[in-house]
Amino acid sequence: RAMVPSSDGLVSTTFEMPSAKLGQLLGYKGLTIQKMKEVSGVSRLHIHDKERAKFQPVVLIEIAGAGDSVNHCMHLLESLCNADQSEIGHLTTYLNVDPTVIGKLMGHKGQTVKEMTDVTGCYIEIQQYPEQGVLDGQPRLFFAG
Prior knowledge:
Layout: E1 4-5, E2 11-18, H1 22-26, H2 31-40, E3 44-47, E4 58-65, H3 67-81, E5 92-96, H4 102-106, H5 111-120, E6 123-127, E7 140-144
Antiparallel strand pairs: 1-2, 2-4, 3-4, 5-7, 6-7
């Protein structure tokens, strides 16, 4: 993507993020996207058409700020897409789970996994589909925090 300079010396660009990674970008209570903004120093990090993410393969992320900050932010987004949040101080890991316990982990309307995130302060995602990176049919939990 081309960076577009503005009159105040700032640049803006867009980053195409796989829709399946949107939850990881937001993180627990929006902390991940906030931390990414702080670490990179960009003035704007905005998700376009967030509500349409369920229906399209990618979402556009708008990034604006000084050139170096925008480049750093794009690097952080690429790392996040590869399950690496170390540069913003987060560890990430996976835990394989038996397919028969997915329902129990999820709980009624997602209540159990939500309670686990509230208790731990971590972002926790149940991954069981190819677009989430599960190619061998082995469901897993993804943790970041």
